[in-house]
Amino acid sequence: MGDPRFAELDLLMTLERDGPRIVQVPRGSEAVHFGMASGPLREMLAEFIEQGFVNGNASAMDNVDTGSPGLARRTHNLASEARINDLNDLRLGHAVTLRIGHKGRVRLWQLRDELRADRGREQFGILLDRRAWDRELAVQLLFATREDPLSLLYVDLDHFKEVNDGISHDEGDRVLKRCMEIVRDMVGDRGDAFRIGGDELGAALPKMPLARATEVAETIRRAVEAEFREAKVRVTTSIGVAEFVTAADPATASKFADAKMYEAKHAGKNRVVAVPFIPDPG
User: Fold this and answer.
1) For residue range 118-166, what is the model confidence (pLDDT) as tens digits?
2) How is the chain split into domains, by residue range?
3) For domain 128-276, which architecture applies?
4) 33, 84, 134, 142 - which has most CB atoms within 10 Å?
5) What's the pLDDT at 32?
6) What is the DSSP string of 146-214?
7) Contact 111/99 with Cβ under 8 angstroms?
8) Is residue 25 left, alpha or beta, with left meaning phi > 0 and alpha meaning psi from -120 to 50?
9) Contacts of residue 124, Cβ cutoff 8 Å, sequence gap at least 6
10) Which of 132, 137, 134 lies closest to 150, judged by CA?
11) Residues 198/222, Cβ–Cβ less than 8 Å
């Protein structure tokens, strides 16, 4: 994504989701951890340790009941010494057991909100644009779990080219805008709707299992079908629905949901194909 905050988010979310993790970054190594080369990763970890976002041995200090001022000062000193030890181990290329601390969890949620806040809209101002879609996937996929699955909708307008070529581009714009409004309204406050490109629309529905997301997709399909039933060109939708219950690469997730949409189109159009994403075990 070109934004270093995504690397921060990925690292903190990995520690939050998977728990303590032993990391060793030998000096001069070309190894890659958390999708980062050794040098930049070492710098990021050092900054996180210094700020108390992640800790090695110092994490044991996080939940100590300090009680008296004297004990509070001693606890603070012990934590500071432990962080210095962690930094030295990191810089010397020794193994460090990383744990996310309370400050790290605060930073995690702060990053999530920051990265989702700067979102533009497409030319008609109805839906969020493609750049916002890419950022949304990069953030929301990190938070997908079995308890809080993420469902993605890919919506393609059937017969839209016939409107543009057979009637006019102005009529095509009117149809596209109306379909955007329908998708936005049917998604409601469950998630966000986007214009992915051309006449392809999308929705990201966090904390929504496949069955409920399929219901949302069906309401969109029926609403568009009804809207243009008496029109010169009967525009409908082919919709792919994909459920993610674990973190996935955004490009892989996008390609998977897009493929389900094309399955719906090739199966006869004006239908929904809903499938859970199953990661490649390899």
Assistant:
1) 789 999 999 999 999 999 999 999 999 999 999 999 999 999 999 999 9
2) 4-109, 128-276
3) 2-Layer Sandwich (3.30)
4) 142
5) 64
6) SSS-EEEEEEEEETHHHHHHHT-HHHHHHHHHHHHHHHHHHHGGGSEEEEEETTEEEEEEET--HHHHH
7) no
8) beta
9) 173, 176, 177, 180
10) 137
11) no
Instruction: Place 57 in a pLDDT band, splitting at 50, 70 and 90.
Output: low
Tell me the residue length of the chain. 282
Q: Residue 61 has what pLDDT?
A: 46
Provide mean pLDDT across the span 69-86.
57
Buried b (16+ CB within 10 A) or exposed e, 176-213: bebbbbbbbebbeebbbbbbbeebbbbbbbbbbbbeeb
Which amino acid belongs to residue 230? E
Q: Could you identify the residue written with the tokens 């069906």?
A: 218
Whole-number percent of the chain with pLDDT over 90: 64
Backbone angles phi, psi at 157, to 5 degrees: -85, 120
Q: How many CA atoms lie within 13 A of 73 on its CB side?
A: 2
CA-to-CA distance for 63 and 56, rounded, in angstroms?
A: 14
pLDDT at 27 over 80: no
SS (H, E, C) 69-101: HHHHHHHHHHHHHHHHHHHHHHHHCCEEEEEEC
Q: Give me the mean pLDDT over the 43-58 stretch.
A: 83
Burial pattern 36-74, b for ≥16 Cβ within 10 A else e, equals bebeebbebbeebbeebbbbbbbbebbeeeeeeeeeeee
H/E stretch holding 36: strand 36-37
Number of helices (H), then strands (E), in the chain: 9, 10
